[in-house]
Structure to design on (490 residues):
């Protein structure tokens, strides 16, 4: 028997059991495979499950890690900690993609490109989920899924259909801006390194004093814009369906790290209220002459993933991943995407997709979102999963992170405290007073039987509620618990 190299890891099962041979266990050299060959069964069972549903859109993509470095002071606009000082660095993960094609589609097709970034900040992950175009085809979220259907396969022919695409676009004139970009010379980038990225939507920035401004994000490629014409793209597709993937991967391996400069446009709420078109319309840009670009920093991609499936295919981005100082806007499409992207990951990857290394925040995580498939419980252990609670060490909200309120027309958008300006006791007291003495006694006895199993501090807190509803109500329960009501005043 060949002696293994001590530095070579021993092959094992998923449970860690060392494997001696990679041949099936059979009854004789020609005999049938035995059901007890659990090593073979494990391999075959996992093989049947080693794919997850592909993304409905942005199915074909490439990813890389890197850093974002602040190069300009923008603290007058935002309190986001990862932007708090010039020179500060934040780890990022980027995923670029084509939009319409399936996972086997060619990279060099005429299509919009996805431009999704995950910033691993000390206040949680910020995901900038955009495209290589500053606008989109529709402004109403009801049309989004309908539009994507036109980019996919015809229900009868199972082929892409120009009839469907142009029928939809001709019925939706708001698509003209994006259609013009798509069929322009920029419609086929020469690679992911050679295209810009845009948040496209309008977002909000909030600084430490609570003032809110509206914002658009622009990532300008420092490699310069490069594109393919139709003939060149057709030739490349015929030779290499992974041309964008290959270019990005090999450039990083060579040490030619691609970079993008992040710039923002800023609009005050007063400017937005009086602007000549809806500034939250996803089919329109803000004129640069009126809202000039402001430099923020530079992103550099400098490390390829070690495993494509684990780190790129399972990566997940959602525009609802926001950090203090960066928020949403009334953009209707953005409002819908705040839900739909997170929901897509729950379906595609699973309820604990954020526990995967590529998606996991680099800061501490503490919440009451629990369990589901593949839950590790490493961030909450044995702690109960409810709030509000009075348990020592349990995570609690911190009002220092509260966003400032903002005005939407005549309505104030804020988190209003549902525990104030409400009478929670009168009706409960009125109900108690309807009961006859025997009913009151039975009520108090039942409550004391249950409440008596809780700690003294909880009993005292609850007794105050009973007394606020009716003095007799509180007195009866206190007596059943063996508590002197005078203790409540201490």
């Amino acid at each position: 028997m060949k002696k293994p190299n001590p530095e070579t890891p021993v092959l094992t099962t998923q449970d860690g059991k060392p494997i001696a041979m990679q041949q099936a266990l059979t009854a004789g050299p020609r005999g049938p495979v035995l059901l007890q060959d659990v090593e073979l069964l494990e391999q075959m069972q996992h093989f049947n499950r080693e794919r997850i549903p592909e993304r409905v859109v942005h199915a074909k993509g490439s990813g890389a890690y890197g850093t974002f470095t602040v190069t300009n002071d923008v603290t007058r606009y935002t309190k986001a900690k990862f932007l708090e000082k010039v020179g500060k660095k934040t780890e990022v993960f980027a995923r670029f993609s084509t939009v319409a094609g399936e996972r086997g589609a060619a990279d060099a097709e005429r299509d919009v490109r996805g431009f999704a970034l995950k910033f691993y900040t000390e206040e949680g992950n910020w995901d900038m989920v955009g495209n290589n175009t500053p606008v989109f085809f529709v402004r109403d979220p009801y049309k989004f899924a309908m539009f994507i259907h036109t980019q996919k396969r015809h229900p009868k022919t199972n082929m892409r259909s120009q009839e469907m695409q142009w029928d939809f676009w001709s019925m939706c004139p708001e698509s003209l801006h994006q259609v013009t970009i798509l069929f322009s010379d920029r419609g086929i980038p020469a690679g992911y390194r050679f295209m810009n990225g845009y948040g496209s939507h309008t977002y909000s920035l909030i600084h430490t004093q609570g003032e809110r401004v509206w914002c658009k994000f622009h990532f300008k490629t420092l490699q310069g814009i490069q594109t393919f014409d139709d003939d060149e793209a057709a030739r490349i597709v015929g030779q290499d369906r992974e041309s964008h993937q290959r270019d990005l991967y090999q450039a990083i391996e060579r040490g030619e790290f691609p970079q993008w400069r992040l710039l923002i446009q800023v609009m005050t709420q007063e400017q937005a209220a009086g602007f000549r078109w809806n500034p939250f319309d996803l089919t329109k840009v803000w004129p640069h002459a009126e809202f000039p670009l402001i430099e923020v920093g530079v992103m550099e991609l400098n490390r390829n993933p070690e495993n494509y499936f684990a780190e790129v295919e399972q990566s997940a981005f959602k525009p609802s991943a926001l950090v203090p100082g960066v928020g949403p806007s009334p953009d209707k499409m953005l409002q819908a995407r705040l839900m739909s992207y997170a929901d897509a990951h729950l379906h595609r990857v699973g309820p604990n997709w954020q526990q995967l290394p590529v998606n996991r925040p680099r800061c501490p995580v503490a919440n009451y979102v629990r369990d589901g498939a593949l839950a590790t419980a490493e961030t909450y252990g044995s702690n109960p999963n409810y709030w509000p609670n009075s348990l020592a060490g349990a995570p609690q909200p911190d009002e220092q992170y509260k966003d400032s309120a903002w005005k939407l027309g005549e309505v104030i958008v804020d988190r209003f405290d549902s525990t104030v300006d409400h009478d929670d006791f009168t009706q409960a007291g009125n109900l108690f007073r309807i009961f006859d003495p025997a009913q009151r006694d039975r009520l108090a006895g039942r409550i004391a039987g249950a409440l008596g199993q809780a700690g003294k501090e909880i009993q005292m807190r609850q007794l105050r509620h009973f007394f606020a509803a009716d003095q007799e109500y509180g007195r009866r329960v206190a007596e059943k618990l063996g508590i002197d009501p005078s203790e409540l005043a201490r």
Notes: The mean pLDDT is 93. The longest strand covers residues 61-70. The two ends are 80 Å apart (CA to CA). Residues 460 and 488 are 7 Å apart (CA to CA).
